[in-house]
């Protein structure tokens, strides 16, 4: 079984590209805190590359930005490539099946508290 679940913050805005056949692909890096402290008592962070495809890629690229908190569910993929110096290298990345947005973007004007923003209405507003 190859399943990965991560919760972390985007290190930078997602990068959206299209394959030669027109399929959308977005890449972003996620900062994920380790659940334990090191010997100095500090918590360390892992930086994990995430890849999204098709509609999910476009949704992430259009709605996510640096610092946003997300949950990613997907699978680990190890791919090989040739570096500019001619050496063979490997890269590990998570291919996301789902990405859940866990916070509101700061610039959207989202309500700061449940009392602000949209009104829930009164009993007189109910249709029954």
Q: Can you walk me through this structure?
A:
- The structure is a single chain.
- The chain is mainly β.
- It has one domain (4-34, 43-105): Nucleic acid-binding proteins (OB fold (Dihydrolipoamide Acetyltransferase, E2P), Beta Barrel), CATH 2.40.50.
- It has one helix and six strands.
- Strands 1-3-4-6-5 form a five-stranded mixed beta barrel.
- The longest helix is centred in the middle third of the chain and has 10 residues, at 54-63.
- The model is unreliable at 110-128 (pLDDT under 50).
* CATH top level class name: Mainly Beta
Question: How many domains?
Answer: 1
DSSP summary: helix tally: 1
Q: How many strands, which pairing sense, and closed or not: the largest β-sheet?
A: 5 strands, mixed, barrel
* Mean pLDDT over all positions: 85
Strand coverage percent: over 45%
Structural class: mainly beta
Q: Considering DSSP H and I runs of 4 or more, what fraction of the residues is helical?
A: under 10%
- What is the name of the CATH superfamily? Nucleic acid-binding proteins
Please tell me the CATH architecture by its name. Answer: Beta Barrel
Tell me, briefly, the overall form.
globular
SSE string, helices as H and strands as E: EEEEHEE
Q: Strand order, biggest sheet? A: 1-3-4-6-5
Query: Regions with pLDDT < 50 over 5+ consecutive residues?
Result: 110-128
- Please report the distance between the alpha carbons of the first and last residues: 50 Å
**Count of DSSP strands:** 6
As for the CATH topology, it is OB fold (Dihydrolipoamide Acetyltransferase, E2P)
Report the C-alpha radius of gyration, rounded. Answer: 19 Å
